[in-house]
Task: inverse folding
């Protein structure tokens, strides 16, 4: 049990580091929203599709099981989350998107509380309040119309990913690699007629390839699989590290300025996550 729990923490942490590079690759691609979605989907399908075919034994039965109620809902959640994430990253800064995304553990815990009857610890609540304080500090900047649209779509993305975490845990029989592949196929079909016809430059294709393979593909599957081994709120809380790492990569590569409020708030969020991870466990209490 303890080894499974530790494995869950490690897998989710790895997925967080990979997931945090999404904003960097979207900036590198420098394409319209639907072109990014379409090309990202293509590379994600190629990477995960080949892996699924090789690693899965009874593919027909797995596909049939996935194309039922719980699997179809998970696919729909993936479609909404995948599109809204790219839209958010293109409408506002990576720091703003990550600030909204920081609400993930609280949304995931709320969904898991009602859907699964999960319980949370007092320490989780305290760390969450500390992280919320950091988020409030980070969000203290003027907003434009694009920022507002970006923040709303970031909220949609956050709710979608929280729902995906809970869905993966509620139905452990679901093949999450296949769910990701199918949701990505559907997302690509939606984006295809809406994308620009001009061919991307090689470096833009590389950025989309990295985005599709590392974030939409590997990171998404790792977070959902690892999330099954720990509580939904804990998985989401670990993913809060993305709030700090996402803007950091963009700042290092493109010098996207991060003000002092973002630095202070991000440090508080990082401190809250670190404190939660290093303190010994405690008995869960009803939220």
Result:
């Amino acid at each position: 049990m303890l080894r499974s729990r530790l494995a869950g923490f490690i897998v989710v942490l790895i997925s967080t580091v990979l997931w945090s590079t999404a904003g960097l690759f979207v900036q590198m691609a420098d394409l319209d929203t639907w072109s990014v979605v379409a090309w990202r989907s293509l590379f994600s399908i190629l990477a995960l599709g080949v892996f699924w075919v090789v690693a899965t034994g009874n593919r027909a039965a797995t596909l049939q099981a996935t194309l039922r109620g719980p699997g179809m809902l998970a696919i729909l959640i993936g479609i909404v989350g995948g599109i809204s994430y790219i839209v958010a990253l293109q409408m506002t800064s990576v720091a703003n998107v990550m600030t909204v995304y920081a609400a993930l553990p609280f949304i995931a815990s709320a969904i898991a509380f009602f859907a699964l009857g999960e319980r949370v610890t007092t320490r989780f609540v305290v760390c969450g309040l500390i992280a919320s304080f950091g988020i409030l500090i980070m969000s203290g900047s003027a907003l434009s119309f694009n920022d507002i649209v970006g923040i709303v779509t970031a909220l949609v993305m956050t709710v979608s990913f929280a729902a995906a975490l809970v869905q993966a845990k509620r139905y452990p029989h679901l093949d999450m690699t296949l769910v990701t592949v199918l949701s990505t196929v559907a997302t690509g079909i939606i984006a295809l007629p809406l994308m620009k016809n001009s061919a991307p430059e090689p470096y833009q294709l590389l950025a989309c390839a990295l985005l599709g393979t590392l974030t939409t593909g590997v990171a998404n599957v790792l977070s959902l699989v690892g999330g099954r081994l720990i509580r939904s709120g804990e998985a989401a809380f670990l993913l809060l590290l993305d709030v700090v790492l996402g803007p950091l990569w963009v700042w290092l590569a493109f010098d996207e300025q991060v003000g002092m409020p973002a630095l202070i708030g991000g440090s508080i969020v990082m401190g809250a996550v670190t404190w939660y991870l290093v303190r010994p466990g405690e008995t869960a209490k009803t939220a």
The first helix runs from residue 2 to 19. Residues 283-287 have pLDDT under 50 and may be disordered. The two ends are 23 Å apart (CA to CA).
